[in-house]
């Protein structure tokens, strides 16, 4: 068995995973319980020790999916959004190997999710996949020839940071996530309607009922979502684009219109065989991808 750990901004999930990608016992731990005065990695190590003792588990190694920019060769957090104290610089691989005496491999959480979807999820069996997740920002992961594309240090795939030109009304910036995230949709909807405290559920409910103002807002947002994906398709020529995040549950109002825009917007040869689909694994994708990354990395040595 492999222990998979998924470190998020406020919690960590842990699960035992077999080599088929099947999840066994699991637990979670609050990583922000004291406002991060206790470093997140300390909390994760303590939770891991407790979990393994409770389960009486002997594991061959640990795969870690972690928020932030992760140097995959060293297993170190080398960049964050600055909102998590005592996290940047965390030596995840070194400290966890010292604590548990087994090999540890670490990658970014969005990359782990993409790998998980390729292993046992929506893109199962595919070797060239682009995944994008839409939430507060836009996360991304690229799989090429069956392996995560990490670039020089393992931090590639930050598709939310792609420049998108001048900002439009209701958007504070010009990066892809400023224009295409779920948060961007909410900001644009509030700007157009003059209403405060809208959220995704209310927006999509009103879209389903035919709200003309929000329809115009959503069409502009969907154009931006698709524009970034069209660029990625032309760079990576994937077999599938996998869409994740809470908005991906909206098949008719999100998945279908994005699929149509992407397939119509790419050059004809890039559209041949290309599928645009909703992610299948939900919050388990990072855990499964972390276990798969451990298997891939240790097998390669």
Task: Tell me briefly what this model is.
The chain is of the alpha/beta class. Helices cover 41% and strands 21% of the residues.
Structure, described:
It is built from ten helices and twelve strands. The protein has 301 residues and is an alpha/beta fold. The model has no long low-confidence stretch (mean pLDDT 94). The protein has helices at 40-55, 92-100, 109-120, 176-180, 182-193, 200-208, 212-236, 251-265, 268-271, 285-299, and strands at 2-7, 11-17, 23-30, 61-66, 69-71, 76-79, 104-108, 129-134, 138-144, 147-148, 240-244, 275-278. The longest helix is centred in the C-terminal third of the chain and has 25 residues, at 212-236. The strands form three sheets. It has a five-stranded mixed β-sheet with strand order 3-2-1-4-7, with helices on both faces.
Per DSSP E runs of 2 or more residues, the count of β-strands stands at 12
What strand order characterises the main sheet?
A: 3-2-1-4-7
How confident is the prediction overall: mean pLDDT? 94
Which structural class matches the secondary elements? Answer: alpha/beta
How much β-strand is present in the residues?
Answer: 15-25%
CATH overall fold name of the largest domain: Nucleotidyltransferase, domain 5
Outline, from the CA principal axes? globular
CATH homologous superfamily title of the largest domain:
ATPase, nucleotide binding domain
Between the first and last Cα atoms, what is the distance in angstroms? 19 Å
Architecture (CATH level 2) name of the largest domain: 2-Layer Sandwich
Query: Which consecutive residue ranges, at least 5 long each, have pLDDT under 50?
Result: none
CATH C-level of the largest domain:
Alpha Beta
């Amino acid at each position: 068995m492999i222990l998979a750990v998924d470190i998020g901004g406020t919690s960590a999930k842990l699960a035992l995973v077999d080599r088929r990608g099947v999840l066994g016992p699991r637990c979670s731990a609050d990583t922000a319980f004291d406002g991060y005065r206790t470093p997140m990695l300390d909390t994760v190590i303590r939770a891991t020790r407790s979990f393994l003792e409770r389960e009486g588990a002997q594991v061959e190694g640990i795969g870690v999916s972690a928020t932030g920019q992760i140097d995959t060769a060293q297993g170190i957090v080398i960049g964050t959004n600055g909102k998590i104290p005592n996290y940047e610089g965390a030596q995840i691989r070194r400290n966890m190997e010292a604590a548990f005496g087994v090999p540890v491999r670490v990658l970014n959480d969005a990359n782990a999710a993409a790998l998980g979807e390729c292993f046992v999820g929506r893109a199962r069996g595919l070797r060239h996949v682009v995944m994008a997740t839409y939430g507060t920002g836009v996360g991304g992961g690229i799989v090429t020839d069956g392996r995560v594309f990490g670039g020089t240090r393992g931090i590639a795939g930050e598709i939310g940071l792609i420049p998108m030109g001048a900002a439009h009304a209701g958007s504070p910036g010009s990066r892809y996530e400023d224009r295409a995230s779920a948060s961007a949709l909410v900001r644009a909807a509030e700007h157009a309607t003059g209403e405060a405290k809208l959220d995704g559920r209310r927006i999509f409910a009103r879209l389903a009922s035919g709200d003309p103002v929000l329809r115009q807002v959503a069409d502009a947002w969907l154009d931006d979502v698709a524009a970034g994906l069209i660029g990625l398709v032309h760079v990576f020529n994937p077999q599938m684009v996998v869409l994740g995040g809470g908005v991906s549950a909206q098949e008719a109002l999100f998945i279908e219109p994005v699929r149509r825009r992407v397939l119509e917007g790419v050059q004809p040869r890039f559209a041949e065989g290309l599928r645009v689909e909703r992610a299948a694994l939900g919050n388990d994708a990072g855990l499964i991808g972390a276990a798969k990354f451990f298997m891939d990395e240790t097998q390669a040595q």
